[in-house]
Amino acid sequence: MSPPPAMPITETTRLPAPPDSKINRDILRVMEGTSPGYWFLVALAVIGAHVAGGVWAYQVYAGLGIGGYTHPVFWGVYIVTFVFWVGIAHAGTLISAILYLFRAKWRNAINRSAEAMTVFAVLTAAQFLGIHVGRMWKSYFILPYPNQRGLWVNFKSPLMWDTFAISTYGTISIVFFYIGLIPDIAIARDRSTGIRKLIYTALALGWQGTSIQWKSHTRSVLHLSGLATPLVLSVHSVVSWDFAMSIVPGWHATIFAPYFVAGAIFSGFAMVLTVMIPVRRIYKLEAYITDYHFENMARFLLLTSMIVGYSYGTEYFIAWYSGVEPEATAFWYRAFGPYWLSTWIMIVCNCVIPMVFWYPPARTHIPTLFIVSTFINIGMWFERYVIIITSLSREYDPAVWGVYTPTLPELIILAGSFCFFAMFFLLFLKAFPVIAIAEVKELAIHEKAHGGAH
Amino acid sequence: MPSLLGIYDLPGDVAAVSRRLRSRGFKDVEVYAPAAFPELDEAVEDGPSRVRIWTLVGGLTGVVTGFFITIWMSNDWPVMIGGKPFASIPPYVVIGFELAILFGGLATLLGLLAVGKLPYGSFGKNDAAYSARFSAEEFGVVVECQDRDVREVDALMRSHDAKEVTVVEA
User: What is the spatial distance between Cα A363 and Cα A356, in angstroms, rounded to a whole number?
Assistant: First the structure.
């Protein structure tokens, strides 16, 4: 380019550099500095994950016998926890994709953190497949790859469908998360120095918010939402078919797919609330994540709680009404057998406690929201426990009935999974903007253009 | 040729000024925005984004791949069950569906990179006109013009409520 001409413009009014956007400062502040409390939590999470890793290493050495597996129950806490974390993973895509397609603007305060939770929850869930199979170094057997034995995998098995569903879900969640992050990484790039600037510059891919970039970005997000919406519904449907395709009483039910999807959304939203309530308070994000957002989440919890409750009712009703004795016996056993406590924890946590949200002030009362969402997390773990363990422990033949009790190593690995998830989430808080800044700005500028009121 | 940069607060003004500039025959118009606004979609380029073609081709490739690998593998390692055909379509729908989503999603990412021309520019170096104010809350319109057009462009940008107009030093 030739050197610029000697200022031919008559009245160049160079204003002083404008102040940075308040939205940028408020949200990027979360990433700055770390308090001793933060490091304490990170240390706790890292140590917890490593303790679980150590127990797992011992399990590899000693064998799966250190778990509570007992004939006929060979799907234990690991599979329960796998299903639990896959369920948690559903809120992110639901908020990002489905609410995006419905143009529910309130989603943009929570979509980023929910997407991050999706990625980390899928990652956590994926660990359990390896932990559960024992010889995890042979896990790659499930992939269809050309081999000397001339064998191919059995695509008629729901476990194969699950492999494809979960790996697709993990990949698409990461793509979705990253595409949404690109403009926000550029914001952080423009406001950071040193090594951080270098990393953000690489990750931002030279994003400058030009018209072409935004246009293709909006299109990509729209298309990914269109793809992710059926995906999120399919993933937990496929997980439910791992069970429903069998003939085990308590599993063999056509209601399983919608029942699991509703449960997944229920537990995912509960986890988003459980995590975001402390984050909002600690990082003073009340201006962005408002009570209105929490109230909407509470309404979602109420709705999905009732769907889940209806599904429980349907299961019991059909077990009785079908007249199929093994089915009726299985459900009687669930409620009044040795696993009665798990069943009643599940019913109370998932169907009774959330009913408090019928009372409007409860939907914006933060301690209530936190406590109820925590109970839902507990209840949803127990739901999977009840479905998997009680059904397996009594199938058709009384000669092979047995009672499974989780052992300490299994429970340590379960607790470690929460540390593993928390570790990633804590690191995420300091690495990337916790709220989708560009989307919040879109609303703010839109309001400015239309004179405040929408 | 000099480039002029106008700074704006509202997307509507940016859309109007870039439309005016393009109708006056200025080819090299660029817009910087802090967020996505539908009114800016056609500021620089007309028509919908071509990312949609990428998604479509990716999704269709996924479906075809899903059914191809399942049917081919069943026949490559045949297991006779009750005299039925080796391949059975209903369970393979799941694989076809998942691969449609997987390939479609990955193709969308590639489409974003290809159509949005990402990664853009050379590493760590932005356009001369770009500054951190466009990742704050301001909009910019940059146009390259002849020396003799500078006054006209300056006046045009100001007539659409430009907060400031400057010459970009390359």
Answer: 8
- Nearest one of A140, A223, A263 to B56, comparing CA atoms: A223
Q: Would the CB atoms of B77 and A150 count as touching at under 8 Å?
A: yes
Instruction: Please state the ipTM of this predicted complex.
Output: 0.93
Mean pLDDT by 10 residues, chain A (454 residues): 44 52 88 90 97 96 91 93 94 84 84 93 93 88 88 91 94 94 94 92 93 92 93 93 93 92 93 93 90 92 96 94 92 94 96 96 95 96 95 90 94 97 95 92 86 53
What's the pLDDT score for residue A10?
41
User: Is A216's CB within 8 Å of B51's CB?
Assistant: yes
Closest-CA distance of chain B to residue A43, Å: 34
Q: What angle do CA A453, B48, A209 make, to 5 degrees?
A: 60
Between chains, do B133 and A18 touch, taking CB under 8 Å as contact?
yes
Q: Which domains does chain B have, with CATH numbers?
A: 3-47+122-168 (3.30.70.120), 51-115 (no CATH)
Half-sphere exposure of A71 (CA within 13 A, CB side): 4
A3 prior amide bond cis, ω within 30: no
* pLDDT score of A406: 95
Q: Tokens 């150590």 sit at which residue?
A: A54
B7 in Cβ contact with A13 (< 8 Å): no
Fold of A28-132+155-435: Formate dehydrogenase/DMSO reductase fold (1.20.1630)
Proportion of chain A above pLDDT 90, given as a percent: 74
What token pair was written down for B147? 């020396």
Neighbours of A191 (CB within 10 A): 19
Token pair listed for A367: 């301690």
What is the per-residue pLDDT across B24-83, written as a single tens digit (0 to 9) for each? 888 889 999 999 998 888 878 778 889 999 999 999 999 999 999 999 999 998 888 888
Percent of chain B exceeding pLDDT 70 equals 99
- The interface residues of chain B toward chain A in range 67-126, judged by CB-CB distance below 8 A, are 69-70, 73-74, 76-77, 88, 91-92, 94-95, 97-99, 101-102, 104-106, 108-109, 111-113, 115-121, 123-124, 126
Residue type, A256: F
Which residues touch A249 (CB under 8 Å, ≥6 apart)?
A324, A326, A327, A329, A330, A391, A394, A395, A396
Which among B30, B99, B168 has CB closest to A210?
B30
Q: Quick check: B76 and A151 in contact, CB under 8 A?
A: no
Q: Per-domain residue ranges for chain A?
A: 28-132+155-435
